[in-house]
Target: M20 family metallo-hydrolase
Amino acid sequence: MKINEKRLLNNLRALREFTDTPGMGVTRFSYGAQDNKAREYILKRAEGVGCSISVDPLRNIRIGLPQNIPGRKTVMAGSHVDTVRNGGWLDGIYGVCGALEAMETLSEGYSDGIPLFNYEMVIFAEEEGSNFGSTMTGSKFISGKYGEEDLDSLRREDGKSLRQVLENLPQRYEDRYLSGNLSDIAHTRWDFSKIKTMLELHIEQGPILDREGLSLGIVESIFGMRVIEVTLTGVGNHAGATPMSERYDAMCAAAESVLEAESVVRGDSDRRTVVTVGRMEVYPNCSNVIPERVVFTLEIRDKDQSKIDGFMETVKEKIRDIARKRGVGCLMYEHSKSAPLRLSDRLISSMKKAALEKSLSFKVMDSGAVHDACMVAEHADTGMIFVPSINGRSHVPQEDTGERELLSGAQFLLDTVISEIEN
Ligand code: HGY
Ligand code: MN
Ligand code: MN
Model:
């Protein structure tokens, strides 16, 4: 079966328009108006081919092939629709459009015979963590990593909890398919005994495939990550009248901490571990006031948990020393985490074999980015397919992939889905 290339590209181009920052990348946070419009667009296409649709209280969506037979094991493909702020047009949505294209092609293709396994596509909610700071939030609930208490502990910058946001959502197109409720959140957990395979098509978001001129990545392992939130509290004071020798400057303490974290991890022997301080809030954030308080996130990622933990503990100790030396208060708490994991060897070897048969240029590789597939991989055979990111850019408006690679990646996903539902 062949994907409909025009339909796939039209869907991708239509969906990129659902953004809060037109002309400055795609900004589409979960639970927002643009997220609702993008989901409505996708659901209307699924309705058009007679799919079954169900939405859980976290707003994860499962969409079934009309020919599915209830109760049979299922092969799944999907990703996320939400983005970072001023992000790219492909992160997440490309995997959702690939899964949707497979859905539409299969619904046409299996007009008579029905395969051995069902096919479903999935849209995971709040993968980027742009609202609540925790990546893979929706998929952490379906895998049981998150439960009742996380509905209240996960909070947005405006202080609203995940539960409050979900309870006060304005009307959304998907509401008609909502099942289950927040008071019984354990019910969002998937019955993984019914899932044969999970596949996620995604852009690489790094430089390897593009630099080596390869069209496909078969993902072997996905990095783990730990995120802490650091609050440094000094003494706010007048920027002009306070002598340098009498300052307890939270900003200088934060700046020294960030550079110290960078130099610790730069010293990594195998040069794989990464550390990032991406979000920083300054109080009171006025040019003529010595900052009293600085809050920042610090995340460390690697494919080896002991390295993540080793570097994180070293960095925390360094930050404590800096705070002590500068007479600044220091509070740190673990914000979120996910373990490194290896994807299904069965799928890696079957996808390698298929890529060789199709003479596709490919590489078996790791993913420094985390994906919802991580949350399914512990429970069902899970595989990830990458396509190149031009100049290795992602999470920025410059994020892009060539049309040829977008199409061959989606065709490879369909071929893999067919091989999984027919054998
Ligand atoms: O942060 C990540 O790796 C993913 O893009 N959410
Ligand atoms: Mn993503
Ligand atoms: Mn992302």
